[in-house]
Amino acid sequence: MLENSHSSVLDALTAPQNKVLPDSNGRIVWGNGIVTLVFAVNENKPVTMIGMSGRGMPQVDANIAGEPDAQPIVELRSSLDGGGDNRLKLAVSAAGLKLRFVCAYMLDMLDDKRRPMTLLAIVQRDAKGEGPLVTSVFESDAGTSAVRTYTRLKSDEPYPVEAVSSMNATLPMEAAKFSTSEAQIYWGESSWDLENAWQSAPLRATTLHDRNQKINPGMSSARLARRSTSTWSTGEFEPMGIVESGGRSGELGEFSFAWQIEHNGAWEWEIGEDDPGLRVSAYGPEYDDHQWFTMLGSSDAFCSVPVSFVICAGDWQQAVAEMTVQRRSLYRAKALQMGRLDAAQKSRGLIIYNDYMNTLWGDPRIEKELPLVEGAAKVGADIFCIDAGWYDSEDGGWWDMVGEWEPSNNRFGNVRFAGLVHDIQSHGMGVGLWLEPEVIGVRSPLAKELPDSAFFCRHGHRIADQGRYHLDFRSPEARAHATATVDRLIDEFDVRYFKFDYNTTPGAGTDVNTDSIGEGLLEHCRAVQSWIEEIRAKHPDVMIENCGSGAMRADYAMLSRLDIQSTSDQSDPVVYAAIAAGAGMSVLPEQQGNWAYAQQEMDDETAAFTLSAGILGRLYLSGFINRMDDQRLELVRDAMALHREVLAEQHNLVPWWPYELPDFNGPWIAYGLRHAPEVTGENVRESLQKVDYLTIWRRSGVDSLYLALGQGAHIRQVFPDPNKPESAPDAKPWKIEQVDPETVRIEAANGKEPSARVFAVTYGPEPTGATDVDAVHTPEGR
């Protein structure tokens, strides 16, 4: 299956009985009751999206004036007729400008008990009947302020396509009475050990400078663009962004628009300025940047990669909350499709110990592992994951010898690997294994056994990257090898958890059996998705982590199918704080595998600091737990106990940054999880009786910060627990001072070194058990 909906769903959508016509003014209005889109049909130009609204905004309808320079809903580029404006790289495509409305279909499934949703398809074609039939598909799940969209191309005649947009959205700046200059842009930078470094700037401080459109009319050729190449989809930038319309929070008309490209390969998004207005376009691979083109004309249609977008009233944080709900909807739908919804829900309560980070560093041996197993069991871990090296029989060949995935014959003594597995199980934990299923080491015997067709090739030779060959999952032999490996490890060792890593990439793609190198890469990426679905359907109870040298492939093609995401390989807890604090922008809280690698030799402040990173995400435990004394073990247990409380409520919580966007290099960072019943659908009265959580890290600088928490808030420290000072006697409680009805001042107890605390925040009547470190606000609700 592709990243897109089942073909059966698209077939059902485009059934004759679902055909709809524009109204007398050429308008089509569609939505799920929360998000609404308005399209304009004109016989002299392509279909445009002239209006949109979402949660908290006045609902648009067919009578709106529409954006003055609304752009076509599809950009389509072909070498036969590239651009309608040679100054523009992707916008104003000549083939796209020739499209005209053919028909439209709507399918309302909002009453469906398994996956309530509504769908729209708008079909266009060149008025002369030339070129492909272009279908824009829009999906929206019930309860969301989100839309998922992609483009389908079909042609009976040969037709080369070099770029096609999945989303080309004109933002409702005119309707909201905001000028382009008021917009604020948010984008994420991501590189190895520096993931989730989110940036923000006024539109005019980016490449989209003011050129005075009154004197220089027309669409600007400037654009703010971000892209990914090859298969580290988040190896440089996030496939997500946000446009905030401007103004102050709460003003009528303020809105935010966020999007994410859901693909595990090459992509590009851009923000451009219309005349007047703003548009956001999103693509999978295209020719200029990714060496991609596809030749239509066969019986098969081509579908672009899917893109989700949300629109809502409020600022960027509200947009992130809405995207969080959309990501949960995507994950649930995929789990349902793979037949593992119950297993997926059960897995979200598990805590994993992994022996790698700041511990064994890929050198597992029986004498090292057995004490770690005992330590992990003492603190209550559910899974013990043996990371890289368990298959290495050459004491250092674990990198370029990978591929057979047989246990080492010289690392586990007389008990052998099976003995280590039995020891883990006898301590009441499930067995986890690190696996890199998409590569074969150049020195592995399998490199000679598998045919060249099983590997990425270019120019007549296999592609080698740092001593590895990259499997091409279009190949039946490649997939069969990967499937047999997973099946065997589960059958032989009862593996309950896999850490799928991904440390090398194949470059632009393959030139074997494909129209273009980029198309070969796209087909491989989709084959990986399909293979994962097969594995998950076959082994629904096995939990799988997504790792790619940390978070170099943290996209929602992967994360809709997998359970947890390694957020980084960063081994410095002070830097990791920024990575953990920014993860909620692009990854679900319940999927954020944040390392917590406390050690005995750390002082209390440092141990609490590193443990704090994991509590609000998925606490990914590591470190030499076996060397810890009772006091340090108790601190770890306290962190895990609090984490389990968070896990029980996490599926109802959304990310929250009361100290604004995390400054990656900043002295203070604050990240929390809050109840948002207006977004999640949770009962409002019940949510007011529950707890929000907030982690605050002080890394340097002044000893205090001010936080606006809202009226009626009560904040108290919960980690380290002030009621258990013996767990970390040198990590004294932080001081909380009421400043005004909405603001508190937080003062760190130790200004000489980095420190962190986790707080519980409640609203309404003062909670029972409040201590003298509580700050109580005037009660007016959340």
TrEMBL record:
<keyword id="KW-0378">Hydrolase</keyword>
<dbReference type="GO" id="GO:0004557">
    <property type="term" value="F:alpha-galactosidase activity"/>
</dbReference>
<protein>
    <submittedName>
        <fullName>Alpha-galactosidase</fullName>
    </submittedName>
</protein>
<feature type="region of interest" description="Disordered">
    <location>
        <begin position="763"/>
        <end position="782"/>
    </location>
</feature>
<dbReference type="Pfam" id="PF02065">
    <property type="entry name" value="Melibiase"/>
</dbReference>
<dbReference type="InterPro" id="IPR050985">
    <property type="entry name" value="Alpha-glycosidase_related"/>
</dbReference>
<dbReference type="GO" id="GO:0016052">
    <property type="term" value="P:carbohydrate catabolic process"/>
</dbReference>
<dbReference type="InterPro" id="IPR002252">
    <property type="entry name" value="Glyco_hydro_36"/>
</dbReference>
<dbReference type="InterPro" id="IPR013785">
    <property type="entry name" value="Aldolase_TIM"/>
</dbReference>
<dbReference type="InterPro" id="IPR038417">
    <property type="entry name" value="Alpga-gal_N_sf"/>
</dbReference>
<keyword id="KW-0326">Glycosidase</keyword>
<dbReference type="InterPro" id="IPR017853">
    <property type="entry name" value="GH"/>
</dbReference>
